[in-house]
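Re: the 485-residue chain
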Amino acid sequence: MLTTLRSHAHLPEATALAGMQHVLIVLRSDSVIPANCPDQGLLSATLARRNLDITDLETEAVSANNSEGGLRVWLMLDPDKSTFEKHSRLREGFSLLLDEEPAAVDVILCAETDVAEHLAGLAAYVGLVNGTPLPKGLENLTLWGSASGLHEARADAEGNVLARSLIALPPNALTPSDYRRRIDELASEQAWKVETFDLQRLREMGAGAFISVAQGSEANDAAIVRISYTPTNAQGRVALIGKGICFDTGGHNLKSADSMIGMHEDMAGSATVLGLLLSATRLNLPIQIDAWLALASNDISPRASRQGDVVTALDGTSIEIVHTDAEGRMVLADTLALAARDTPDLMIDFGTLTYTMIQALGYRYSGVFSSTDQLGQQAVQAGIRSGERMSTFPMDEDYADALDSKVADICQCTLDDDAPDHIHAALFLKRFTHELPWLHVDLSAASCDEGLGAVSTDQTGFGVAWGIRFLKDWLEAQGKPAVSL
């Protein structure tokens, strides 16, 4: 359960402050300690003892215990810095407090009203996404100095925590059938509509690309699951598609032991979509959203696909299988084709798809491909505003020559170690969007050692906050209201 969030527009009285045990004090960047800063004498003494100046709080959080034994942490934030930088600084401050596994944390915002309102949402989000997963759990988070802008922070945090909690589950606790049960339970709670395309139905429909991955699993429990959120005030229709490979052995092109570690996280794209759907529901976002989750395991067995097999996708495209460890694009191909049948206004797919994207960006950005330059620019701007950074990549048609096949309409991938596989994967997926407006997010930042931006855990939940920001911006770009009516 997410931490309880409370807020007060005013700063705490001295008597209330004295009783607080774990306090984060956020100051606006300045050359002097502001007059309303709590425990000014303790801060001054701490800075003097460490031979620091007040401006050093812009790069380093400082902590000290007061005479009652309470822990105080001070830091400075420049409102003009990027969201990512502000998230990172707040995470540093919260970490000093959360290391003690407190039941409650108070955040005091010492800034003028407009700045405090801006910082309140950032602090609430960072506190909620990091307080919830603790072994003991943060029960209460209280903000002093602003009572505005917290609803979206809480919604984003709840979606992020859902995504990370799913990604962290071991593979024997989140098989496709386990995943489907969890989805049904969540859908019942949120009044979502669920439609399941199981293997029998997909075979009858001719979803050969998806089946080529799923057929190697003895459990026979793979499925494409559609979850629909339909607000009464919908201003548009969006399809969100998530890669949900619950474990990836690589198939007959078996991964090495060290490469197979962490492959239960290959369902991060689907978890991102589910978290994004939850956040959108909490915000009553005025968009009809169909979430399409491609749930399967890429197992090795006598029934598993082989190199050289030719399969036919749902839309009739024949595909030559070149490498069985390029399974993500196969399950996404049929899922995109299925989602495209409803002709949504926009499709966005998410997946931990290629190692070449990690080689290109590392783990601190995710890559995005777009059907138009305008969508790509909006994606990057949403990354800047949300603190989940995106970088665009080219998708020119001459790259597609590498996917020419002599026996099918298209090759799944190439075997060239020097090939830009992230670009080839995007071009492969584009074929199944049927020219609809589309974004492909290759989640190279789904996992980052020691956390990223606002999030302290290795699993980042990347894409949830970005997705909410992008969908709001997308609506506004069309002249439609981005708030509930």
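The CA atoms of residues 333 and 431 lie 8 Å apart.
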